[in-house]
Structures are given as C-alpha cells and as structure tokens.
Design brief:
The chain is an all-alpha fold. Helix content is 75%, strand content 0%. The chain has helices spanning 4-21, 27-33, 40-64, 68-93, 99-130, 135-159, 173-189, 199-203, 207-210, 222-235, 240-250, 262-265, 267-314, 321-349, 355-387, 394-415.
C-alpha cells in the first residue's frame, strides 16, 4: 500500500477546510465594520440556500462527466477567484461597500465551495479504497486534519494584521486569504490520483433516485417524519454563532471596562476553542450512542445548544470570560451530538437502497432549510435588540436563541419515540 497517500489526503483536507475557516467565523465582524451589520444573516443564509441544490448538481457532473478530483479543483478555482474578487473589492471600496457587488461575489464563491465538502469526502474515499485502506478506520484520522486546518486559518486571520494595523478578522483580508488558499487547492487537486467517472450506477437509477427525491418517502413513517422535522428545527441553530459570535465578542472593545481584554481583541482565537471541542466531541459519540441511545443523545445536543446561547448571553471577556470559554467547550457536544449522531441514526434506520438519499435529506433539512431559516431569523432578532435598538442588548438576543432551543428540546422529548428495535429499517 502507498503510505504517502494518507499524507496527500491530509494536505487536501487541511486546504479544504482552511478555505472556509479563513472567513466563516469572522465575516460578520467585517460586514458590521462596513455598514452591512443588518445583512449578516443574508450572507450566511446563502450557504444554506446553495446547499439545497449545488451538491447534487456537482455530484451528477462528477459521476458522468468530470473525474471527482478535477471537479473538486475546478470548483475551488471558481470559488477562490470569486472570493479574491470580494477581497479586492473590499480593498478598493474601503468603507463605501455596495451590498449587491460584495454579496454577488460572495454568493458565487459559496455556490461552488459548498459542493466541495461532499466532493472532497468522495475523493478521499475513492483514493483510500483504491489503495487498499479501510475507509471506516482510516478516514476519520485524516478528516481531523481538516478541522486542524480550519483552526489554523482562524488563528491566522485573528493574529495577523494589515498595513493599517487592523486584524484580518476585521477586514477584507480574510477573503484574500480564503481565495489564495482556494487557488492553491485548485493546483493541488490536479496532482491527486484519478477518480474516474462511473456512469454505470447512474444509468441504473431513476431520475427521482438520482436527485434523492425517493428519500421523501421516509415521511410516511411517523417517527422518521418527527425526527426530520426536529432536525430542521434544530438546524436553525447551526449558523447563528458563526454569523454573530465574532461581532458580539468584538463589540466589547467599545466598552471601556473590556476594551483591553484579551478575548475582546482576539474573538476568533477565543471562538477557535469551539473547533477544538468539536474534535473531542466526535470521539465521544460512539460511547454516547451505545450508552444513551439516539433520543437521549439528541436531547443532550439540544440542551447543549441552550447552554451555548445562554452562556453567551451571560458572559463577557472580563470576569465572565469563563462563561464564554465554557460556551465554546459546550459547542463540541451541541454540534457533533446533533449532526453526526443524527447522520448515524438515519443510516441505521434506512435500507441500503435509500441510505444515500436519506443522508441528503438530512443535510437538506439541517444545513439547507434549517440553517437558512435560522440565519435570517437570527438576523431579525439581532437587528431588533442590537443594530436597530437605541441601547444595544446582545444578551437579550442570545437569551431568545436559548429559549428557542429549550422549547425545541422539550417538544422533542415529548413527541419523539425511539424505536424499541433499531434494527428495523425504513424503506
């Protein structure tokens, strides 16, 4: 077996996730600085909107026309070029930024970046299998380096400053970092082993199967329907802190009491604890699923979201910094116990014929519909309590999000019934 394959896939994952980590948690702070604070949610919602259809389209192209590793590179090339365009526009526009131009460039970038998450996994699986590796055993340690790449990018834009002494996390430079990384990924992908198209499997599928529409039959099962509905409801929470945590923490610099606090000046570094926690949360899932079962694990995730938001509302970068840190630690449980455990549950409860489509439906309900509704709704809440308020009240906004998660948790507790025999499959 080619031992260098793992190293090459590790580099691929580092670059893949560093592209996103360069701006995902800090973009809101930059948008607020150029007068677009009331439209942060629109930017983040675009990730959910394109996730509804772009991964499917690119999956079909990879199956029928363009080898996956080349398509992965081309998508990164387009996404990177558009993000560079956003960065250069921010550089030339200064504080006079047009929403339409910046959003258009950003939307084009994420439209081609979001499909790369699935494509990069497909490329890794294909190459590992060709070289005799066990994907179940060997892929997770490789994927962890993606999270490391995400964290490194976050820390880079946090600590590096431009010529004016402004941190990249508060400026257009974060887009330039992302764009350059994306173009590096373009070049790198064309050095990877070939992942040939496979049209045979596609020809055996109906149009509805190819687009994953057959998965909607799962709604005929009452408990699966309840599960997917609550997946959407909890998916509302997924992008809220990505969009608003950095502006929230950074705003403490405007308060004399907290102006010199390390956390207020290094919001992205503080937020990066969430990603570290995420890697640890992944390791806990198999044990938690075995001990508690899916319902209790999902409830743990839901109550963790309550803590995530509530601690943000109560915390500050000064004496209350421990609450912000605890909120970051809780994130690993809130995110992973929901996303990964939910995905495992879907896989366990569906037949092999429909499993791929069911996973697509789960992603559609959470990262597509749920996250889109969540970011737009969160923007309205933040606008009301912060940006359009005479006296900005970030705490009230976070408590609203916490209350929402709490209501969802109690309703899930009442309505969802875990199957007595989890081996029974739903077709």
């Amino acid at each position: 077996m080619n031992k260098s394959i793992k190293s090459r896939l590790i580099v691929m994952n580092i670059l893949q996730w560093a592209v996103w980590g360069s701006y995902l948690t800090s973009m809101g702070s930059y948008l607020a600085s150029v007068g677009l604070a009331t439209r942060i949610g629109i930017f983040y919602s675009m990730q959910g909107i394109v996730s509804i259809f772009m991964p499917t389209i690119m999956g079909i192209i990879a199956d029928k026309f363009i080898p996956a590793q080349k398509l992965l590179g081309l998508c990164h090339g387009i996404a990177g070029a558009a993000m560079l365009g956003a960065g250069f526009y921010g550089m030339t526009g200064g504080s006079e930024i047009s929403f339409g131009i910046l959003f258009g460039l950003y939307a084009l970038s994420v439209a081609f970046y979001m499909p790369t998450i699935a494509l990069s996994n497909s490329v890794a699986f294909n190459i590992l299998e060709k070289n005799g590796y066990d994907t179940v055993k060997d892929f997770p340690p490789i994927r962890v380096f993606g999270t490391i790449g995400f964290i490194l990018a976050m820390l880079f834009v946090n600590f590096v400053r431009n010529g004016e002494g402004i941190q990249f996390q508060h400026s257009y430079n974060q887009f330039l970092v992302s764009g350059i990384t994306g173009l590096a990924m373009l070049v790198y992908c064309f050095t990877l082993p070939n992942c040939p198209c496979n049209t045979a499997s596609d020809q055996k599928q109906s149009l509805s199967e190819r687009f994953g529409l057959n998965a909607f039959s799962l709604f005929k099962d009452r408990q699966m329907a309840i599960f997917f509905i609550f997946s959407m409801l909890l998916g509302v929470a997924l992008q809220i802190t990505n969009g608003f945590a950095n502006p929230f923490i950074s705003h403490f610099q405007e308060i004399p009491e907290f102006a010199n606090a390390w956390g207020a000046r290094n919001a992205n570094a503080l937020i990066s604890i969430s990603q570290v926690s995420e890697t640890l949360g992944i390791l806990l899932i198999p044990v938690a699923m075995r001990i508690f079962g899916i319902k209790k694990v999902m409830l743990i995730a839901m109550f963790a979201w309550v803590l995530r938001f509530g601690l943000f509302g109560a915390g500050n970068p000064g004496p209350g910094v421990w609450m912000l840190i605890l909120s970051m630690i809780v994130y690993g449980v809130a995110f992973d116990f929901f996303n990964i455990s939910g995905s495992l549950y879907v896989n366990m409860r569906t037949t092999s014929k429909i499993q791929n489509s069911a996973q697509g439906l789960f992603m559609l309900m959470t990262n597509g519909i749920g996250a889109t509704i969540g970011t737009l709704s969160a923007q309205a809440v933040v606008n009301y309590f912060v940006y359009n308020a005479a006296e900005p009240n970030w705490s009230a906004a976070w408590y609203v999000f916490a209350a929402y998660a709490l209501v969802v948790a109690f309703l899930f507790m009442i309505l969802f019934k875990e199957p007595k025999d989890s081996s029974v499959k739903v077709a």
